[in-house]
Amino acid sequence: MAVVCTECQHENPDESSQCGRCKFPFDDSWPSLVEREAGNYKLVRRIGGGGFGAVYEARHITLGKSFAVKILAPEMADKEHFIERFQQEALVMAELRHENVVQVLDSGSDDEVGFYLVTEWLEGRSLFKIWRYNEELDRAWILAVFSQLLDALSFAHDRGIVHRDLKPENIMLTTGGRARILLKIVDFGIAKMVGQTYEAKLEEGGKEKTTENVLEKKGVIVGTPFYMAPEQVRGQMDLIDGRTDLYACGIILGEFLTGRRVFDGGSLKGTMRLHLEALPPTLAQLAPERTFSPELEAVFAKAIAKERELRFQNPQAFYDALAEAMAASDIEPNYEDLYLELDTKKAPPPRPPRPEIEYDKVPGLGRMQTRDIALGVGAAVLVLLIAVTLFSILFPTPEQPKVPKRRKPGKAVWIEVEPDAAAPPERLAPVKDAGVRPEAKAAPEARTTPESEPIPKRRPAPRRPAQKPKKILLRLRSKPSRATVYINGRKRGRTPLRWRAKLGRRLRVELRKKGYVKHSFTWKVRKTKRTRTVKLIEELPM
Length: 542
Hints:
- The relative contact order is 0.10.
- The chain is built from twelve helices and 24 strands.
- Helix 3 packs antiparallel against helix 6, helix 6 crosses helix 9 and helix 9 runs antiparallel to helix 10.
- It is globular and about 70 Å long.
- The protein folds into three domains: 118 residues, Phosphorylase Kinase, domain 1; 261 residues, Orthogonal Bundle (Transferase(Phosphotransferase), domain 1), CATH 1.10.510; 65 residues, Immunoglobulin-like.
- By secondary structure, it is α+β, with helices and mostly antiparallel strands.
- A hairpin with a 2-residue loop joins strand 3 and strand 4.
- Helices cover 25% and strands 22% of the residues.
């Protein structure tokens, strides 16, 4: 006999201990909250949940509009550090009023539901799902995704906010106007305020406490191992800044370009060790069957440099270098929602075998002490559980058939929290001592053998199809860059921008950037004058 979940009405097998869809436990550890009210929001159905809390779809009592309401778990409501972290997320996200960051609209506490956080309701797919269900992602689409991602990070970093847990699971794509992608960064639960301290709205014993007092203890590791910068692995919280986020962006870029993990030591500790001790592999080493330009290799290598000083120093520099490298291969941003029809009801396709990689050791680096990692492993596992749980419950995807998981003895927690655990962890060669990184082996060229065929009879020449109007590749730059471009009234992207237009067509071009005067001009598409650079004028203070 099926067990029907009271929170989402999903039918579960009789022996189920929790709902297979929304993770509602059937052991009475969580109360039923459907139909209850959190402030002005009536909880309609549970979307998902875990040890840290649960997320419900809710409707505003008077407006009738849908929102996502995150509820802190009852057993966490009496633990001060969890309450502070929950409230810190609300404070951090309230500061980030940007189209590419999920918006927090309200927060508070209620006698019926406890502490809650209200965000906008998103319908979309995570970048992890898109990456996992596609063997090779379109590079023009990748460039468009990074344009929005780095723009959002630039906005956050300018306000002293570092995410610290960037990964494809925490980046959502929704479909904006004209079927164009709209990126949203989610889960600022472990974000750090750089250069300032947010006072928690709590008092204990008459003395105010700060969020950083609790969350920024020395030696605590926060983040997700696949994307953690060396300073995060060491637990050096004072060294974490915007360049830590850019390191994670570099890892994401490598994954998207190659379809494989950049660093994978087969375990939590092994992967963290590679971030510290191993020189980064090249893109060609990760995917020898694909081709990568020297410019793209250079961008990737700089993004994930071990030393912060050698990485890109800000998101703008990262994007400019990436756009330039792509332009060298005649690739321009493609903002079309190429992966809108993503079928996640089936199991993801199998990944091609990972090439054997012998990571080269960073010259002059002694063996990393086990103690350096062990100090924060317990905290890291806890953060992993929380981060993965919050993402999966806040932005659920359609139900998928269960795939048996192969676990290794003693690694249950790590394998459980890794979303790609349907396949056993890949074992890579250990780090070897070497001062110079070996060159990637070129992929063998495919050979074709012509088959003997009879000489075909002479046929009449086929009709030539009508020639389409020739399109010319145009390039538009601005000083400063990252100006929003509108062509004939429609938003096209940000500078530097490349696109094709029909020969002879007249384009009405408009550039907008906050703090600068709007610039408009008419551009007739010709075979000459294909590149234009516009110098924007700063607005005068009022």
